[in-house]
């Protein structure tokens, strides 16, 4: 019995999940992590590109270009979809604002999950209204070797996780928000920075990004006229 069937049998509402990012450009690491989360949680993961990311350098590709690359990347993967809502808002893309918007649409009892990488999760106390996030959604933390561990967490984050942690993803369907679930994913040492640097050096990053995305980047001339970082 899969997780959705088990959720129905227990009278729970199926989980809905989102994973944000700059996706400048989207690469295999993003996609594999999202796919593994979708399969582990038995959900469709909605990839949500940020308009103006608060904690990262500003994107080189435009919002429209990053959206198009994401749509090309997931076109044939039923477990992944694209949610462009943050691109329709001006200003910085704060996760708390997005979750408040989703709550207004979906109500207070729908289980929601925000999927974040372990490094981003370690920095959660620097996010806007970070404690509010736990009131609005569950948080699924993607762990891989070399990423931040609980030893890197602040005392205030450790205190929050201590009583919110769950070990069974079905627990995420029993309540609307507030739990933290850790998920180990395949370690793929791929970054958008490395992909951009490859283009800047005149190289072609085969097998780091989907072929459709590679063709789009080459057609648009993206990342070709900037120095490697």
What does the model show?
α3 packs antiparallel against α9 (211-220) and α4 (95-106) runs parallel beside α6. The model has no long low-confidence stretch (mean pLDDT 92). The protein is an alpha/beta fold and 229 residues long. The radius of gyration is 18 Å and the shape is globular. The chain has a seven-stranded parallel beta sheet with strand order 3-2-1-4-5-7-6, with helices on both faces. The protein is 38% helix and 14% strand. The protein contains nine helices and seven strands. α2 links the parallel β1 (16-21) and β2.
Question: What features would you highlight for this structure?
Answer:
229 residues, alpha/beta, seven-stranded parallel sheet, 9 helices, 14% strand, globular
What does the secondary structure layout of this molecule look like, with pairings?
Blueprint: H1 3-9, E1 16-21, H2 28-41, E2 45-49, H3 63-74, E3 80-82, H4 95-106, E4 112-117, H5 118-122, H6 130-136, E5 138-143, H7 155-164, E6 165-166, E7 180-184, H8 192-200, H9 211-220
Parallel strand pairs: 1-2, 1-4, 2-3, 4-5, 5-7, 6-7
Helix pairs in contact: 3-9, 4-6
């Amino acid at each position: 019995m899969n997780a959705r069937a088990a959720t129905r049998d227990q009278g729970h509402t199926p989980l809905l999940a989102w994973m944000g990012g700059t996706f400048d450009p989207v690469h295999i690491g993003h996609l594999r992590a999202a796919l593994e989360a979708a399969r582990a949680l038995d959900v469709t993961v909605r990839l949500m590109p940020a308009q103006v990311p608060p904690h990262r350098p500003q994107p080189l590709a435009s919002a429209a270009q990053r959206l198009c690359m994401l749509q090309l990347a997931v076109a044939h993967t039923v477990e992944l979809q694209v949610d462009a809502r943050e691109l329709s808002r001006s200003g910085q893309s704060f996760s708390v604002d997005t979750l408040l918007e989703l709550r207004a649409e979906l109500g207070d009892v729908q289980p929601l999950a925000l999927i974040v990488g372990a490094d981003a999760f370690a920095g959660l106390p620097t996010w806007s209204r970070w404690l509010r996030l736990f009131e609005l959604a569950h948080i699924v933390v993607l762990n891989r070797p070399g990423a931040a561990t609980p030893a890197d967490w602040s005392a205030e984050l450790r205190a929050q996780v201590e009583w919110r942690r769950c070990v069974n993803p079905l627990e995420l369907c029993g309540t609307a928000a507030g739990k933290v679930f850790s998920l180990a994913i395949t370690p793929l040492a791929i970054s958008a920075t490395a992909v951009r640097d490859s283009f800047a050096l005149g190289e072609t990053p085969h097998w780091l990004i989907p072929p459709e995305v590679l063709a789009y980047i080459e057609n648009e001339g993206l990342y070709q006229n900037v120095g490697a970082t």
